[in-house]
UniProtKB/TrEMBL annotation, chain A:
It comes from Raphanus sativus. InterPro entries: C/VIF1, Invertase/methylesterase_inhib, PCW_Enzyme_Inhibitor, Pectinesterase_inhib_dom. GO terms for molecular function: enzyme inhibitor activity. Residues 18-158 form the Pectinesterase inhibitor domain. This is Cell wall / vacuolar inhibitor of fructosidase 1-like. Keywords: Disulfide bond, Signal. Belongs to the PMEI family. CDD domains: CIF_like. It holds the Pfam family PMEI. SMART domains: PMEI. Gene3D superfamilies: Invertase/pectin methylesterase inhibitor family protein.
UniProtKB/TrEMBL annotation, chain B:
The gene is LOC108810739. GO terms for cellular component: vacuolar lumen. This is beta-fructofuranosidase. Keywords: Glycoprotein, Glycosidase, Hydrolase, Membrane, Transmembrane, Transmembrane helix, Vacuole, Zymogen. It is found in: Vacuole lumen. The keyword Cell cycle does not apply. The chain crosses the membrane at residues 40-59. Residues 449-645 form the Glycosyl hydrolase family 32 C-terminal domain. It comes from Raphanus sativus. Pfam families: Glyco_hydro_32C (PF08244), Glyco_hydro_32N (PF00251), INV_N (PF11837). The keyword Cytoplasm does not apply. GO terms for molecular function: beta-fructofuranosidase activity. Pathway: Glycan biosynthesis; sucrose metabolism. InterPro entries: Beta-fructofuranosidase_N, ConA-like_dom_sf, Fructan_Metab_Enzymes, Glyco_hydro_32, Glyco_hydro_32_AS, Glyco_hydro_32_C, Glyco_hydro_32_N, Glyco_hydro_beta-prop_sf. Its EC number is 3.2.1.26.
Amino acid sequence: MTKTMMMMVMMATLMGVAMCDIVDKTCKQTPDYTLCLSLLRSDPSSASADTVGLGLILVNKIKALGTQTLGQINVAYKTKPMLKRQLDECKLRYKTIVDADVHTAIIAIKGNPKFAESAVVDAGVEASVCEGGFPKGQSPLTGLTQKMNKICDVTRAIVRMLL
Amino acid sequence: MASSDALLPISAREEDPLLSDGSRSDPNAETHRRRRPVKGLLAVSFGLLFIAFYVALIATRDGSTRSNVDDAEIKSDGTATATSRARLAGVSEKSNDQLWKLSGDRNTVAFSWNNSMLSWQRTAFHFQPEQNWMNDPNGPLFYKGWYHFFYQYNPNAAVWGDIVWGHAVSKDLIHWVHLPLAMVADQWYDANGVWTGSATFLEDGSIVMLYTGSTDKSVQVQNLAYPEDLNDPLLLKWVKYSGNPVLVPPPGILPKDFRDPTTAWKTSAGKWRITIGSKINRTGISLVYDTTDFKTYEKLDTLLHKVPNTGMWECVDFYPVSKTLVKGLDTSVNGPDVKHIVKASMDDTRIDHYAIGTYFDSNGTWIPDDPTIDVGISTSLRYDYGKFYASKTFYDQNKGRRILWGWIGESDSESADVQKGWSSLQGIPRTVVLDTKTGKNLVQWPVEEVKSLRLSSKKFDMEVGPGSLVHIDVGSAAQLDIEAEFEINKESLDKILGDASATVEAEEFSCQKSGGSTVRGALGPFGFSVLAHESLSEQTPVYFYVAKGKDSKLKTFFCTDSSRSSFANDVVKPVYGSSVPVLKGEKLTMRILVDHSIVEAFGQGGRTCITSRVYPTKAIYGAAKLFLFNNAIDATITASFNVWQMNSAFIHPYSEEAVRALSRT
C-alpha cells in the first residue's frame, strides 16, 4: 500500500516535471507563446527535442506554409488574373523562402545559427514584400503572409537562443 | 488547463464520505472500512498529484517571467525595454519591423528587381568572387611577391552553405586573380564546413595555417594545414595535417562555441601562442593555447580576456600597435612602446568591436585601458560603424604595414541575391595604426595602392551657404574617390559657442536616431550626396554634423544616411555613423570611395569609418550623380575637394595567362 502511494506521488512529481518541459519554457521566450506552442506540439518529436530540434520543427513549418502559399498563388492566377504581375513577384519571393531560406536555415541551425537567423528573417521579409505589392485590400494571400511573418518571428526567437 | 482548485474540493468531498461513512453508527462499518483504505490512498495520491502539478505550473510561470525581465535588461544597445529578448533591435538589420515601416511609405508602386538594376550592383574594384556567396576573410598573408587572400565561399549558391576556402592572389591588394579552391570539405573533421582560420609564418619562413573545421557531427575543432609546395609562389595546393584535429573543445566549452583561431605570436619563453574566441553562458571569452609545433598544445588556465553579457566571440584578433610610430608591427612584437589590440566579432549583434590595452606575456592575459568601453560592450569602439563583420588583420612584411580585411555582406533580400547570382564583398583593405594623436583609438585608411585606380580628377573649391545643394559634374558617378576638407565659418561657430541659451545638442544626438541628413541644425549636416538621382528621389548623403557639446566644446558626428538610397522596400536602409574626434586646429576631412553598391566613408583621416551597401533603382549607370550639400541653418561651409574617376580592377578568373600578365606589372 505504501508502495502504491509512493508510486502515485512519484507519478505526480513526474507529471509536474513534465509540465516544466522544454517546449513550454522555450515558447515563453518567443513573441507569440500560443502560436509557438501550437506549432511545436503539433509535432510529437517536440517533446524530446533540444533547442536545435525545436528550431528545425519550426523551419519545416515555414517550408510547409511556403509551399501551401505557392499553391494558393497558382490558384489566384486563375481567380484574379488582373493581379498577374504581383502574383509573379510573390511566386519569386516564396520560391526564395522555400528553396533558399529554408535550406540555409536547416544547415546553419546545426552549426552556425546566425546564418539561420538571417535566413528566417529574410523569409519574413520576402512574405512582406509579396504582400506589399498588392493594391490595398486586393491581396488573396493576406492571411498566409501574415502567418508567415508570425512564424518567422517565433522561429527567429528560438534560433537566437542558439547564438 | 484546468486548475486543480476545482479538483481539490471534489477529492475532499470524496474523502469526507469515506471518513464519515460508517465510522460511527453502522456495526458493518468495520468490514466496510477495511476495504476502503485502498480507495482512500488512491484519492489522497490523486490529490497530491494535482497539487504537485499545480505547484509546477506556478513555478514555471514565475521562472520565465523573471527570465524575460533579465533578458530585457541585458539588451545590447543599452536601452531598457519591456520587450522580450526575441525583439532585440539592431540585432539583425533585416527585420520585419523595419520592413513594415518602409512599406508604410508612399512608395506603394509594386517594385521588382530587373537584371539591369541588379547587374549594376556588382562592384568594379572591390574583391568579390565571380559568383555565389562569400563571407569571412581567411589567412591573409604576403609570400614571395604575392598577397594571398582566402575566404569563406559557397561554390554552389548565392547563400551561405557548403563552405570551402576560396583563394586569390594580387601584387598590390587591388588587382586580383582568382585561383582554384585552396581547401574543400573532404575530411570528417571539416565535413560540415572548412571555416575561418589564420596564417602564421615560422622562423624558417614557412607557413602554417590553423582553421576551424565543423566535423561530420557539427563539432567545432581546430585543424592544421600547410602549403604542399613552398616553392610555388601561388601556394595553389594545401595539405591537411594527418593528425587533425589538433584542438577539440576543452572541458566546459560547448562543441559549437570554439572557432576562428588567430595568427600565433612568440612568447618570451620561445613558444607560439594563439587565442580562440568562445563563450561561457553569456560571457564572451578568449581561450589561450601555447604550442611549439602547432600539433600539440597546452591550454592556459587563464583567459586572454572576458567580458560578461557579450555573447559568443567570433573571429578574435590580437595584435600589437606602436604607440609612437605610424607603421605596422609583426604579431610577435612586444615592448614598452607597444599597446595590444583585442578585437572580437559579436555573434549576437554582428558588430566588430575592439579595445586598446596591455598584454601580459607571463600569463597570457590582457586588460583594456578603459574598461568602460571594453570589447563587445555596446559603446566600445568599432572598426566600422556600418556593415562590416568578421574582420581580420595581418602583418604585411613587404611594406611594414598591418592590414585589415572585413566582410561586407549584402543588405538586400535573398531573392535579389539569388537572382543576381552573388552575395557579399570584401572592403578595400585598410592599414591600421594607433592614433598617435589621441592614443585612444585606431586609425584606418584604404591602402595606398587603391590610388593606382584613379583616372581623371577634378579639383573644386567652393563656399556653400546654409541650405544649398550643388551638383558636382564629374561625368559618371558610380566609381569615385573623393577627398575633401571642410571649414565652418568662424562667425557661425562663435555664435553657437557664445550663446549660453543654445541647447547642448551633442549629448542627445546620434547618427542612428536623429533623423538623418534632412534634419537641420545650426552647424550641419553638410557633406556629399553620392549615387544621387538628379531629382534627388534616391541619394546617399555622407556628412558631418557638428553640435554644441558640454563645456562649450563642439562635438562632431560623421554619418552615412542610406534611408533614401533606394525606392526598393526590401533592402535595409539605416543611418550609420558615430562621433569622430576632431583635435584643435584640425579641419574636417572626409574620404569617400564609391563603387556601385558599396560606399566606404572615412572621417578625419580614418578615425571613424562607415561602410554602407546601397541598392538604388534609378540612380544607376548614367543617372547616378554627385552633389555637395549644406543643410545647416546658420553655417556657411568652405569645401575644398578632389574627385577622381576610378578604374575597374579587372579581377580575373584563374588562368595561366592572367597570372603571367600580372607578374610583369
